[in-house]
Amino acid sequence: MASEELKIDARRSKIIEILNKKGHERVSQLSKDLTTSMDSMRSDLNALERDGYLERIQGGAIQTAFHHYNRELLAKKKHMAAEKKRIANALADLIEDGDTLIMNSGTTTYYAAVALKDHKNLNIVTNSLAIAVELGACPTFKVILLGGEINAQHSFTYGNDVLEQLKRYKAKYAILSIDGVCVDEGVSTIHAEEVMVARMMMERSNDTIIIADHSKLGKEGFMYVCDLQDINKLITDKKADPERVKEIREANVQVILG
Asked: If both were cysteines, with which of 62, 81, 217, 239 could 244 make a disulfide (CB 3.0 to 4.6 Å apart)?
């Protein structure tokens, strides 16, 4: 059974690889190239469409920029998914119905957005396309997507238009997903475009909550965002190095282990 599942996964990975190169392909050609039946190929394509990897068309499938980047996002979501979900649940416990939140992009903030669905009457301001789509359908939520230049690969907006719009809002919490938390080097990110956005989100909020899995502690990202003392809370998972957690707490940051 396990070998059969591996065979299916390998075949579906090959389908994605072909579509990435060619943009589109017919079921009959894929079936021929991968030496599998037409019924199995249709089943593969339908499953890949459900998972957001491609779009089915009559007689075949296509790969669009949306599905290409969605594939990368799905892969990132799977990385330490269990830890990120626990962090998200710990964050949701801090939030009260009616709160106003500013959230940046990232897979950890995405999981946080999903966990927040149990609340009511939240006001969400975000530069994350994924969060805006995820929460936009919640009937009691007011969701504001900040418009600006788009980083399509990582699904966020940035630039002067985003910064100007942020000045209109005031939130209880800025909830930020970042790439590095160091006692000496501070908070950092790999995305240069998000630095000024993150700083403005902090400025427009009463408290800043960093949500980051244990692998981010002691790590330095590409771009400096702020000093550790500029944040109020860090929510991480229980696999975090106790010594690093102790150092962060000694810097007067509340650390919550999800």
From this structure: 217
